[in-house]
Amino acid sequence: MRPESVEALAEIIRLTDMPLSPVGGGTRLRPGEGQGARIETGRLSGVTHYEPEALTLVVRAGTSLQAVQELLASEGQMLAFEPDGRAGSTIGGVVAANASGPRRVQAGACRDALIGVQFVDGRGEIIRNGGRVMKNVTGYDLVKLMAGSRGTLGVLTECAFKTAPIPQVSLTLALPDLEAGPAVAALTRALTGPFDVSGAGWLPERGALIRLEGLEGSVAIRRQTLAARLEGFGGLVEVPGMNWADLVPEARGGDLWRITCQPTEAPALLAALPEPLALDWGGALIWVELPPGEMPVLPSWSGQAQRVRGTEPALVPPMNSIVARLNRDLRARFDPRGILVGEG
Fold first, then answer.
1. Residue 88 pLDDT more than 90?
2. How many Cβ atoms sit within 10 Å of the Cβ of residue 71?
3. Would the N or C end of the chain have less CB density within 10 A of its end CB?
């Protein structure tokens, strides 16, 4: 189903009695998602309001992420957060997944840049919440609730964002000889200093990666002082043309797992895992591949591991009872018939 208007979408949801799976670009579907009749939002596209001077953008949810980024770049701007790099994404899919890339360590997640939403809930009601300017924060908590809801509370149809100027200079530096465990210690030193780091990750073929952005003179000074702070980890080298979207890997035949933790917990987790495919957020996000069907055996930690590519859904440890009850109550409020089975 490909509704061409919000009203048509609302009518579909009101009249249906079958499970529905809202889908944008379908680039972030996890095991077990997308099992219902698909509602594709690609025809709900286009920019409805853009004020470069006010740093605000309102766009329909089916608009491609690439189109949004190209429009903003034409005005020397970008989204005030950094989406993770998935070709073919829609902006609504980014919000539904709260898909937040390396700049999260500096600028926050997708939900932190989201200032307004319109969506159709499971009863077929059109709901608008939040505002179109940063000063209007009415209903801000509901706006944040929709980010990461993965289509289980409603089908996003329009999103309003804060934007930001594109940095004058973006520089990636590497400590190429570091393995994943030692890299976490180096990234922590970089993130806890006065260097305004906008990316801190690790790749097997690159080593530890650190991104500095801003005015040319500021970046040059921060690079010099950061090199002195990290001299015990080896020499920093520049990585020209680094694509930070590479920190979101694809599985190579096994199951892809996404593990979140506190950076201080990362070394113990890494010791219990095969070599990761990537680290992000200074070690707080671990991407690893395991054989099909295998579950990670990890020491106790504060985060969660989720299978994001594979045949069966899995979450380790399972969601605690309080969070599970809150989720059930929210879904019952927004989708009392239980027909929305989620998107990615």
1. no
2. 17
3. N
Both tokens of 249, joined, read: 């890997």
Determine the residue type at 211: R
For residue range 11-69, what is the model confidence (pLDDT) as tens digits? 999 999 899 999 888 888 888 887 888 999 999 999 999 999 999 999 999 999 999 99
Q: Which two tokens stand for residue 118?
A: 């319109």
Please give the structure tokens belonging to residue 234: 């080896």
Task: Kindly state the DSSP code that residue 27 receives in the 8-state scheme.
Answer: S
Cβ-proximal residues to 120 (8 Å cutoff; 6+ apart), any chain: 6, 9, 10, 13, 126, 127, 154, 155, 157
Neighbours of 302 (CB within 10 A): 9
Are the C-beta atoms of 116 and 54 separated by less than 8 Å? Answer: no
pLDDT at 342: 67
Q: What is the pLDDT of residue 34?
A: 76
This prediction has a pTM of 0.92
Please check whether residue 13 is in contact with residue 289, taking contact to mean a CB–CB distance below 8 angstroms.
no
Residue 28, both tokens? 């972030």
